[in-house]
Structures
1.
Amino acid sequence: MAKRNKLEIIKDILTIIHSNHNSIKSTPLLRQSNISTARFKEYFNELIEKKFIKEVNNKNNKSISLTDKGFKFLEKYKTIVNFIEEFEL
Amino acid sequence: MPSFNPQFVRNFVSPGFGTEIIYSLVIIVCSLMIYFGTKELYELSSHKGIKYFRQAFLFFAIAYFFRSFIKFILVYFSANRILDISPRIFAPLLSQVTLFLFMYFSSMAIFYLLYSVMWKKWNGSSKKIYLFHLLAFIISASIILSRNVLIYLGVNIFLFIIVLFVVYTSYQNTKKKPKGHKHNLYVIYLLLSFFLILNIIDILIPEFLQIFQLFIYIASIIIFLMMLYKVLKKTGPS
């Protein structure tokens, strides 16, 4: 399997959240993301900082959901990748 | 400031000046449409290549703004060359600073465009861009200080050699890839840079390219429109 680039990893993390009815706990998200714990923490913090995802408190549990910006990223992902490829960026 | 100058009025209303304004306006609008049209893609991806690509077109727009301002100054003072304007009749700052800024932003537009395709090859280090800023500063300062046609030509040939080298290196890298079908893009990058360099020569040594001026204007507009079309086609409706 080819090494994923940063954009692909972000897309994969957001897709996992989306495909779990937009609510998933951090442990299964880490497992399904298929990256190391250290890298997952980096990506997680970055996605929170960029407001792609948010932590939601449900009773005693904390789950992760996509924000509108996160949905927008998934919607535009193909356009971004095509643009980068087209202009050799 | 000079008092009423009939020659200025004649030059100002001549079709040449109108063509200059329309020409610059078309290129500035195309560049800004590319810059703002790719804003969302950059905000979502924070991709460095998209960032440098956008910066290139912002700098193209600023460079062409200063170009049209230089043309206005030339018409206003009925001068042929910007450096011919005597410092006595006008604050030397205006013509010299405008020329400096035009050279600086033109060089940086070319460097950003090249950097957008080469940043990965250069290990993604954003420090190299400071070297380009320094190089653009040296190029601009040498133009202001030298007042020599040979140095003007030398600087522009040097710029074009950098463009050729980077485009050729990128082209070779693309050819190694399994789906190397984007070669026409490098032709567009090459032409964008080439025609900007011709525009710089047109400002520095107006008599050098006078008979080709209209051709340069039309070709430059066509290239910018092609680039805008490619960008809009890929970014789609926002």
2.
Amino acid sequence: MSVKAYSLFRKDFHSELRTRYAVNSLVMFIIVAISVILFSIGTEKISQSLTAGLFWVVIFFSAMSGLARAFVSEEERGTTMTLHLIASPSTIYSGKLLFNLILVFMMNIVIALLYSAFFDAFIIKNFLLFVVTFILGNVGLAVSSTIIAAIIAKAGSKGTLYPVLSFPILLPLILLVVQLTLNSLDGTSFEQSVFELAMVVCYDVIMLAASYMLFDFVWKD
Amino acid sequence: MAWKIFLFLLLSFVSVAGIAFPIVENPIHWYQFPLIRGLEQNAKIIFFHVPTAWLTVIAFLMSTIYSVKYLKNKNLDDDAKSYAAAQLGMIFCVLATITGAVWAKFAWGSYWSWDPRQTSIFALLLIYGAWFALRSSLESEEKRATLSAVYSVIAFLTVPFFIFIMPRIMKGLHPGSADDTNAGPVVNFKMNGNMQLIFFLSLFGFTILYFWMWNIGYKSLIYKDRINKIYTRG
């Protein structure tokens, strides 16, 4: 199953490379979002907690902009039926999830780099905590976004519905990772943040299990 | 029929008792409630605020249960039950938010302070608002039922976190939060015997009211659906 999932991922990856949608549109979206925030702030100095929050705001909206493509592009190109034939639902979900994971990681590394460059308060004092938060948070983001993308691919007003559906599901994750990011900017020790990290791990595991179980229902017509 | 009359009497008694019974320093008669520091006359809102919040969770739990049933059996009646429960849940969620905001105004000074429990009831409003938005964007009946059932299950996974975990571990103003010294379950909240009785009667009465409304709600949805089908079949 994982070989098939990996080949599905490679198909998506190559077709994205061909059109370079991800590189062009998503990176431009990230740059535009960060620019809007910088313009709104002007010369004001913003606190660390605000910077931590804004970091995840940009991550959330970039994810909303980019992650629906995994399923919506299949619907648009009419290749959904082919996918139905060649693989079982969980294989397809694994392939799409892998693709979205890679996409989320790449986008968020760009966002983190831009934030370090342009925001004064974004100086990471506890780097290990930041890296662990980053990885766990991105996994949670990718998992939840992928299952919601599968749901809205079959719905009507896809673009507007996607953030509306995803935000409440992602809210527990966002609350936790904003607090953890603030901790890593502050320099709070790893030991003090273990509780929140454990909750993020719980969220990731629960969402992953639920997504696999529910994807069958979404996928079958 | 008899139980409807009983319910009417019960809820009338609860409403009158909740609003009219006086709150005095040292209650002597059975119809007097004790004075609670910080709340004084406004403590009576507890008889209406807690049941609405409780019913929100019950309604959404039932909505998810019937969603799971629908996913197993593909019987559209279960979808109607789920929808009726979600409608009621939404109404009670709005009521809980409003009564909570009113209580917050005289207890904490402002209508909305992003206290964890206020944040979580707002998140619940968002979840179920999104659920209704999803339903209205889907045309085909079966697809609508299936996809909204899936979303209902996913959304319900976050509800225990919002209702039971988050407000208890975070520091906040609402009773039962992390820095609440007179902690414990809300009921140990310095209510005396007869106040607790009225409170539980209120909870009980509102729960029965909810089940009655849900019953009527889903039956009317199912009948409307069947009538439509007969009409369109010609």
